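re: that complex we talked abt at group meeting.

here r the seqs, copy pasted straight from the sheet so there may be weird spacing, ignore it
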Amino acid sequence: MSFPWAKEYTPANGFTKFLDEKLPLPRLVYNAVGAGYPVPRNLSYFWNFGVLAGFFLVLQIVTGIILAMHYAANAQVAFATTEHIMRNVNWGWLMRYAHANGASFFFIVVYLHIFRGFYYSSYKAPREMIWLLGVTIFLLMMATAFMGYVLPWGQMSFWGAKVITGLFGAIPLVGEPIQIWLLGGYAPDNAALNRFFSLHFLLPFVIAGCVILHIWALHIPGSSNPTGVEIKSESDTLPFHPYYTVKDGFGLGVALILFMTMVFFLPNALGHPDNYIEANPLSTPAHIVPEWYFWPFYAILRAFTVDFLFIPAKLLGVIAMFGSILLWFILPWLDRSPVRSGHYRPLFRKFFWFGLIPAMIVLFICGGAPAEEPYVMLSQLATAYYFLHFLVILPIVGQIEKPEPLPYSITEAVLGSDKKAVLGENASPAV
Amino acid sequence: MTKLLSIRLVAILAGLGFALVALYSFVVGAFAFLTEETAPHLPYEEPRDFAFSFDGPAGKWDVQQLQRGLKVYDEVCSACHSLKYVAFRNLSQIGYDEGQVKAYAASKQVPGIDPNTGEATTRPGLPTDYFPSPYPNAVAAAAANNNAIPPDLSLITKARGDGTNYVASLLAGYQEPSAELLAEHPEAAPGPGLYHNPYFPNLNLAMAPPLTSTGQVTYDDGTEATIEQMSIDVAAFLTWTAEPTLVQRKQTGWPVLLFLLFATVLAYLSKKQIWAAVKPKKK
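got the structure back, here u go
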């Protein structure tokens, strides 16, 4: 892996020499996120979101472990222990608000990370495995977030759990037994709450494992870049440290300012008021909505309102909702355009900005809105476009599009004719 | 190559299939939308915008107001509504000293166990006790209230959109339905045992107007207890019960943000400096 000009780790003293011989952990870090990892010199701020996603994963694990010390996963007391955390545990309110808003920020940065991947087709060879692991991480995040939202045992927790596990009930013949098996009963209750807590504690560590694989797979071809032109020589790259550690540090600062503003001044803005009402199986909320980060997919689920050729509408919605994410797995084999970056793909770019992005915004709004007109009709049009975009437009555009000329190299794209700025002549030595 | 082609062929067919079925739903829905009448929504009003001392990023409690609100809860709301997540000891946060908290707690009867017989009984409250419920259980609460169980009020301002304004608007907003409303929506007329209130999403609720006359509660600080004043005060008190740490939260936020702003500016300057040498020269 890596490039021949990558800096080699040299242990500085007796202790690091000892470590390097017995367990070369510092060498691993040096080569992964230190000066030993050459990275394209032209990455924009859209390449910050991977590191930010890693940060929010760690934040969720730390705040989550602290919350678990005070929470009890029992349907009789779960809501009360959540309030106990908010009122009686020292700084408990901060831990809970950081955890709840941390989930939202984790999804915000991951969505930006994914859509960066769509625009620059980061999924293309040789980076298919990175993409497959990334989609896996996203699916695990969705499962984890869904189960986490059930734990406070408020009205939306309960009814969200009922609706989502009810999706499995749409499977023909075996659906109902599967739903009962998943819940450990006919409706969400103690059995469901307990297993959701257990899995909500486990899955973040599975995600962390997948993140390690994701980064490992990334280090084999190296990072993509906004031109989509592969690295050709040393002057195309900069060492990750200090250039990208400092750039990611600045990005993290901006993200934390936004995050802390939400935590301290608008902590409930992204939640639903009904979740401050204790779960009540006898009282259905007027509008059952999931957390905002599921709205686009919830809109796809609800867009199928009419049975089609003996297939019940509910089953169609369930297939479409799962299909809408699972199709990301085959993207590397659908989009065969030899050009990666959307910068050089005029036709693709139009479909991206005037098709996919508006469709996602419409789906987002409709998913959070009540199931009424005009939201249902809008979500149906956006759903149709969503599937056409990925499954029909992407493969065809790749064939018929005439891409714009690519720069010869990353260096040329960045520096143009300024040959003196090439690394080695006036670059500062790496710190 | 033929294998890859077939993946794309299957994908294109699947994509057309999904789009077709979604559009079929759209056409059926659009036809129904154009030909069928949908039940109109009852027009309810958004909460009025009261200015509270704890609004905004620098908000603080008005302790006098919280104490007035406690008195409204104590003399009016507590007849039917519990406050189960609030302990008497918490009242020390809204300006009562230890003696006052003890005396207030002792004035309430809480469930207890007779030490001699072991039978359920009541005893005077201690500061560590929580506000007692007016009903022994949900069945009793339903039986006494025409089957509409009065909700616990501890979290009510967080459990409603724009909760503080909503509670104040609702309590001060009872009125007879207007003639225009009844002409347009005859179904909006309150049924037996229901009361009209434009801020309630159904327009009719089972709670009789709890605040009915000026001076219903005698405020200790001399504030005139109008219906609107009492509504605002109890809404403020219930905002405190829903989140006693609200002001602490906002006050902790400022130093955190100032530190982050400082650190981020430093990070930006470091970034500029480190990158200066490898950036192309400006032409």
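couple things i noticed - The radius of gyration of chain A is 24 Å. The longest helix of chain A spans residues 190-218.
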